[in-house]
Specification:
Helix content is about 30%, strand content about 15%. By secondary structure, it is an alpha/beta fold. The strands form 4 sheets. The chain has an 8-stranded parallel β-sheet. Strands 12-13-14-18-16 form a 5-stranded antiparallel β-sheet. The longest helix is centred in the N-terminal third of the chain and has 17 residues. The two termini are about 25 Å apart. The site of alpha-D-glucopyranose has 9 residues, from loops.
């Protein structure tokens, strides 16, 4: 059992996509000087830690997740000195910083790969995964996660290399000890500089099956438009030999032992939902995401209860939950859960859910002002190569019309949630200096109140909703680290639960009405006398909750039990 809580159990995390957060030099791309200028916004919001999406040099074929140097800063983001200033300034505001660590693959422009592909006997040949073809085709029928074959033929040496994602992201061969040594050097480089941990990209794909069998999924890689759209069962059948192969746990234990040599409780967060990544004795990752919750198309009280029951019961004793509803790969919360009529109320409800459930919450930049997905206007605006590949596959392999392919790509492109942060209502949204052309268009709703400046002084704004709620969470031990216990388990419209901190002798009741009608809630007897701490309704006249508690439509209510 956890006895003393670590910083990463108590902090609210906030993901920054560096390209889209703040552009100080006017090239239309975010940078460290821009981010430094916005740290006060995060401090005032109550953020305790930043997860920074990749900031390394990269040709940006996968928006920075294709790294060409693991120990430097992308020149368009600034210099290593700028990074150090960013880290120091964040720490000065009690904000920790974790970096994105992409272990599975590098960019094909990384000097390691350039050497590896140069000849079959180059000393770095075995740093990547090279195989002979079979019967005039690739070594196996494996699919890449972003579609198409997972093997790319390289005419220079007449062999194929393996890539779990884009062909510009060749997989590193983690069975080669030199790869591991080089990557652990990079990890130490950042830890020595003082970063507080890492978010591990795509942990499950690090190893493949060396016997290289064909999978038996009925469709070939050319027939599947987008492997990411398959159900979890179909996906695991397709990716049988490419994900979660033996070796991962040993590797993560090694990394954990490495970071544990550093003081200050550095943290490892895995881009995965599998609780076995916590290890056998708290010896792998500290946090894995509750993706099953995020995958639900609509969050209903009964689905959330079922998710929590399963999740909390399957977590090893000393592991801590971690919840999120959006990130740079997914639809924004506002868009995903909106019904077109009550979007603002629903967005508040989902924010309240994140900030009151047991576990570390991860927020995504812009959600605090209610940013929404942007549907781009044309194919030329798409920057996400995975979406461009989808377009190409649909038109060239799947016989779809250009219109159909365009519509599918505009809906699927991850650009939809990566548009520049909206700091004010100007043409550049306060993201870039005036007159700059931003790398992705700004959402037009920045002129309709969806921006920081317009929301700052409005007590009813989304921004102030997040601020108040985060502050409440941070000042209320029960909400932050307390246990979770369901109340009124059969209520189909409302999610009601207690958060209980025995050490602080404090219990809070959280009641969320997911319906557009007012609802009654059945409280346990002890929950009836309670002080209202927070509500989206005016409950100022109520000293205590009534036994027959009524919640207004979409109400968020938090109360402390006497
Ligand atoms: C992870 C990242 C995603 C990236 C992929 C390949 O899933 O979140 O953005 O494209 O890994 O690196």
């Amino acid at each position: 059992m956890v006895t003393e809580f670590k910083w990463w159990q108590q902090a609210v995390f906030y993901q920054i996509y560096p390209r889209s957060f703040a552009d100080a030099n006017g090239d239309g791309i975010g940078d460290f000087k821009g981010m430094i200028g916005k740290l006060d916004h995060l401090r005032d919001l109550g953020i305790g830690a930043i997860w920074l999406s990749p900031h390394y040099p990269s040709p940006y074929i996968d928006c920075g997740y294709d790294i060409s140097d693991y120990v430097d800063v992308a020149p368009e983001y600034g210099t290593l000195e700028d990074f150090k200033t960013f880290l120091t300034e964040a720490h000065a505001r009690n904000i920790r910083v974790i970096l994105d660590l992409v272990l599975n693959h590098s960019s094909d422009q990384h000097p390691w790969f350039q050497e590896s592909r140069s000849s079959r006997d180059n000393p770095k040949r075995d740093w990547y995964i090279w195989r002979d073809g079979q019967n005039g085709g690739p070594p196996t029928n494996w699919a890449a996660i972003f579609g198409g074959s997972a093997w790319e033929y390289d005419p220079a040496t007449e062999q194929y290399y393996y890539h779990a994602f884009l062909k510009e992201q060749p997989d590193l061969n983690w069975r080669n000890p030199e790869v591991k040594a080089a990557m652990w050097d990079a990890v130490r480089f950042w830890l020595d500089m003082g970063v507080d941990g890492f978010r591990l990209d795509a942990v499950a794909t690090i190893y493949e099956d060396f016997d290289l069998p064909n999978h038996s999924y009925p469709l070939s890689f050319d027939e599947i438009p987008d492997p990411n759209s398959l159900s979890p069962t179909e996906y695991s059948q397709l990716m049988k030999y490419q994900v979660k192969r033996p070796g991962m746990h040993e590797l993560l234990k090694e990394l954990r032992a490495l970071i544990d040599q550093y003081p200050g409780d550095r943290v490892l967060v895995g881009e995965d939902e599998d609780v076995t990544f916590h290890g056998s004795d708290d010896d792998e990752l500290h946090l894995v995401f509750n993706f099953p919750l995020m995958r639900l198309k609509r969050l209903t009280p009964s689905d959330i209860r079922a998710n929590q029951e399963l999740r909390l019961s399957e977590l090893p004793d000393d592991a801590w939950p971690c919840n999120t509803l959006n990130n740079h790969d997914a639809s924004r919360v506002w868009t995903r859960y909106g019904d077109g009529e009550h979007d603002a109320a629903l967005a508040r409800l989902h924010a309240a859910l994140m900030l009151t459930l047991k576990g570390t919450p991860f927020l995504y930049y812009g959600e605090e002002i209610g940013m929404t997905n942007l549907k781009l206007a044309s194919k030329d605006q798409i920057r996400d190569t995975a979406a461009l590949n989808l377009y190409q596959r649909m038109t060239q392999k799947l016989g779809k019309s250009a219109d159909e392919a365009l519509e599918a790509s505009l809906l699927a492109t991850r650009d939809r949630c990566r548009t520049p942060m909206q700091w004010d209502n100007s043409a550049e949204g306060g993201f870039s200096p005036s007159g700059s052309t931003t790398w992705l268009p700004l959402h037009p709703n920045r002129t309709r109140g969806v921006n920081v400046a317009d929301q700052l002084d409005d007590p009813t704004s989304m921004l102030n909703f997040y601020r108040r709620l985060i502050q409440l969470r941070q000042n209320t031990p029960a909400l932050n680290t307390g246990d979770y216990q369901v109340v009124d388990p059969d209520n189909s419209s409302c999610l009601v639960f207690l958060r209980q901190d025995t050490k602080a002798n404090q219990t809070c009741l959280v009641a969320l009405n997911f319906s557009e009608e007012s609802q009654s809630v059945v409280l346990d007897s002890e929950a009836k006398s309670a002080e209202v701490l927070f509500s989206t309704e005016d409950r100022s006249g109520e000293a205590n909750l009534q036994p027959n508690l009524r919640l207004s439509p979409f109400e968020v209510l938090i109360a402390q039990l006497a």
